Amino acid sequence: MATIEGTSLQLFLTAAKSSDKESILTILQVLGDLLSVGTDRRIRYMISKGGSEALLQTLVDTARSASPDYDVLLPLFRLLAKVGLRDKKFGQKALELEALDVTLILARKNLSHSQNLLHCLWALRVFASSVTTGAMLGINGAMELLFKVITPYTQKRTRIIRAAAEVLAALLKSKSNSRRAVNRGYVASLLRLHLDWHHRDAADAYVRIRRALLLCLRHIANLRSGREAFLAARGMEILFSSAQNCLDDRRLEPVISVMIQILRQCYPRSPLPLVTSSSAYAFPVPGSVPPEPPCALTEEDFEDDADEEVDQDSDSEDTKEQDDDLETDVNKLSSKPGLDRPEEELRQYEAMCLELSCSLEELESKPGDNLNFEETQDAEHYHIPPVTSPKQHYLTKDQSSWGQEREDMVQTSLLSMVKMGRSTMHPASKRGPGMNAYQNMQSNGLGIDSSGREAPDSQASLKQDAWDIDVISCPVMSASLSSSARPTETAEVDKLLQTHPKHIPFHDPHLYMAKARRTRSVADFKRMAFPDLWGHRPPPCAQSMLERKCGVQRIKIFEDVRRLIEPSDVINKVVFSLDESVLWKLMCVTSQCLVWEYDLLVNTDVNSSQHQQWFYFRVSGTRAAVPYRFNIINCEKPNSQFNYGMQPTVYSVKEALLGRPTWIRMGYEICYYKNHYRQRTAATGGASEKCFYTLTFVVTFPHNEDACYLAYHYPYTYTALLTHLDTLERSVNPKQVYFRQDVLCQTLGGNSCPLVTITAMPESNSADHLEQFRQRPYQVITARVHPGESNASWVMKGALEFLVSSDPVARLLRENFIFKIIPMLNPDGVINGNHRCSLKGEDLNRQWLSPSARLQPTIYHAKGLLYYLSSVGRSPRVFCDFHGHSQKKNVFLYGCSIKETLWQAESSVGTSNLLEDIGYRTLPKILDKLAPAFTMSSCSFLVEKSRASTARVVVWREMGVSKSYTMESSYCGCNQGPYQGLPEMTKNGRSLPSGMGLQFGTSELEEMGAMFCLSLLILELKSVSCSRQLLTQATTLLNAVEEALDHHLQRFLPKTLSFFLFFRFFFQINK
Ligand SMILES: [Zn+2]
């Protein structure tokens, strides 16, 4: 084929030179035929052989003759249009060969000759696809010519109008052409044309003309002067009103999407309605310069920001990580830096590792006991059921009716939940958007209180109580610690707890109140949030992801535009402000259609001017069945899982009093998009501006006069952790479980950072047993260095409860390891509602390289403890830091590998001489098999430069822990494995859409924590260093299971089955 083409091309070139009309026509015919069939390969071949130049030269020669021959020109134009589309340098070639000029001249001559003009326009369209050529055409008067063709409105010659409008749109990609268009007043004319076509094209027959006209406006709007001209010509009003009646028209989609782009682009940029961009709170960091006075925000000059924006409806969810961030310096990767502090300092950590030195007697009187709080009068309220499996706490007799499904799940051991077992999840039925999940639960027949009784007319009983819901929903803390008199509000809570008895495992409201009094915050908060005090119990059903309604984002954008053009609809009233002195503002926006709408501004992290993402607020005096719309208008991240099925979490105080103390996913019409707020950033000296994003959602509250709490994710407070640790400690049998709480250090804010040690007590006082006890390998787990990642705390909660439980796996784990756990590395951040930082305004997970004892005490001492373990030859088997991930789904690990990093970076450094234990992949592989929420496919083992100072990389490099990980849990949920929401019949017989996925509830996160612990055991069983004792214990367990299977086949089936699965798994992986 190439030969034929080559031949015909040469023929053509010869013919073109000879100017023999007949020959040219024949060749054009042959070329046209050749290129109209087959693949692009032919055209590319022709281009590579100088075909474009030959055609353009022929055009110029023919056009310049005294009487241009249109018999030749028309087929030539058609061929040019075809070839030009494939030739990237076509515009440049046309410019050099002067084909632009001749085409323009021909077009001018043929204004009244449709056929000829149309062909010229086709050629101009391909010429204009290069911006430089487009600019040249503009200089030569192409725009005036095109404008003459498209104005005034007429439905005659629509093919020509379409081609001309498309050429014009292409020309306006050039900024100089756009500027010219603005100066000549084309914006107003284009708007008029848009209206003419919009109104008169009732049958939508000319969508492409209408789109091309709008594209012209869209390109002009890239210029600031273009946007000004558009606004002056009332463009916002015109596009807004013309779009009103056709938003749902599928055929007009190409038109509407451009309209939206123009409206977004032209919406006047404005600074956030805040006096300062810094946090409402400042914390005086000892020894550092006081934070600069907040810089005032002024009306900024928003210069051309031609940010091309795509409608996020079509955005792809995955963001590619950049490879140039990879560490390719082998020295940095493989060398071990020295100690960052004097060696003698490490001795202080001996006191935190008493298990290494103490006798049994000393162990039994744990120093951690001193940490218990003086408010022991609260202890009598506390009831811990006898320790079985922690999950079985759900099953105390009185509570058995709370959700049949959960009961099924918790009756079996953790092992039954491994992936190869059945999925234990029962997704909630799909519900209409307006219906909230509480109603859904009730409709599932679950309107049952915690005591197992039906709550027949609970509304009435609530009224009888006549509680002031506002007061009880946020009890005021007593300021004084020594005061024995309780404030009236806490007394109210006492009364409430008597009339609404409740048993939430490992939670005690009275203990919570006592702990909260000792918690120190920057703003000196005096109020507690009811949900944290009262407690949370997972909902009876897992909740599926919210199906995104098509076009929800554009509806929200149109509503924003309406606020701009109909400002009288907006009640611009501040309904709540955190601190009047900085004009912290929250606007109430109520529109005429009685939608209750609020704009919210989230405070930045303390001592910072960024990290607005986490939110947790209360709405009181609610009205039932009214759709409340909330817009959080100063979010920072460019995308969010809120665009992919995630809902915020809501807790209703009335529901809690009715026996459903539950955070659930709620809200609909959820969407996250870039808004019109901009701010100069101090970091860049005001050179660039920062964009903001709106998270919008609508919530319908379940009750009148209720107080409801809304949060980014299931909250888990510092006080909740302290309460949890104490109740856990009280729950264990001290003869069997060694559970010690130490204080790792005091934080900047004056709070203590707990360190927990869990292992089994030595079997006896004998030297052998004590020796075994001391020689157990360590496992170190940390969490919540990022305060906004409350999911990490729920995973940690699950791990802690599992580790102290009576599950045989947990017992084996305790008997074979010592767990050192720092469950909250950033207590101050959590207490003060930060999303990312410490009180110093720093990301603590970027401080591990050289932390300071004074400024980053928790990191300094966490690292110190690890140094200490390493110095006594007891580096942990595994180090893992739990985190939350806002962009991805599922749970996954990040680890460290030199070889994978070098390979990925395509580094020239040879890796064959590098020794690397590939054991770092074993743990994630095990988790992939075990944990329903976990996926290997999102794991990564690359060492990035930007992560050099994270816990994972520093513990790997400096402590030589090859299995050093970050575990990321999605804020959203799962789209793989058993939780991806397989089509499953729900109670009311409806099935879920396949593959929609489930949002994480706290149960799934806690389960993940337990699974993580189980994986540590299997990792050990698989390792060559696994002790004979552990292997023996595992075999004993297997024999016991077999016996149980023989004798109690029926009764214990679920549990024994789970062991079988476990051991089958264990032996499989040992093959
Ligand atoms: Zn994190």
What does this structure look like?
The protein is of the alpha+beta class and 1071 residues long. The protein has a seven-stranded mixed β-sheet, sandwiched between helices. Helix 1 runs parallel beside helix 4 (51-64) and helix 10 (142-150) packs antiparallel against helix 11. The radius of gyration is 35 Å and the shape is elongated. Bound molecules: zinc ion (ZN). Zinc ion is lined by residues 786, 789, 883. Residues 714-1020 form the Peptidase M14 domain. Its EC number is 3.4.17.24. Residues 285-343, 424-460 are annotated as: Disordered. Its main location: cytoplasm.
Task: Summarize it.
With 1071 residues, the chain is an alpha+beta fold. The relative contact order is 0.09.
Task: List strands and helices in order, with pairings.
Blueprint: H1 2-18, H2 21-36, H3 40-48, H4 51-64, H5 70-86, H6 90-96, H7 99-109, H8 114-127, H9 131-139, H10 142-150, H11 158-171, H12 175-183, H13 186-200, H14 207-220, H15 224-232, H16 235-244, H17 253-266, H18 330-334, H19 360-364, H20 404-411, H21 437-443, H22 458-465, H23 469-472, H24 488-499, H25 509-518, H26 530-534, E1 543-544, H27 552-565, E2 573-574, E3 587-590, E4 596-600, E5 616-620, E6 627-635, E7 649-652, H28 653-657, E8 664-665, E9 668-680, E10 689-700, E11 707-711, H29 718-731, E12 737-746, E13 752-760, H30 767-775, E14 778-783, H31 790-803, H32 808-816, E15 818-822, H33 827-831, H34 857-871, E16 878-885, E17 891-894, H35 898-904, H36 922-930, H37 951-958, E18 964-970, E19 973-974, E20 998-999, H38 1002-1022, H39 1028-1047, H40 1053-1070
Parallel strand pairs: 4-6, 14-15, 14-16, 16-18
Antiparallel strand pairs: 1-20, 2-3, 3-4, 5-11, 6-10, 7-8, 7-11, 9-10, 12-13, 13-15, 17-18, 19-20
Helix pairs in contact: 1-2, 1-4, 2-5, 4-5, 4-7, 5-8, 6-9, 7-8, 8-11, 9-12, 10-11, 11-14, 13-14, 13-16, 14-17, 16-17, 25-29, 31-38, 32-38, 36-38, 39-40
Zinc ion is lined by residues 786, 789, 883.
Cofactor: Zn(2+)
EC number: 3.4.17.24
Domain Peptidase M14: 714-1020
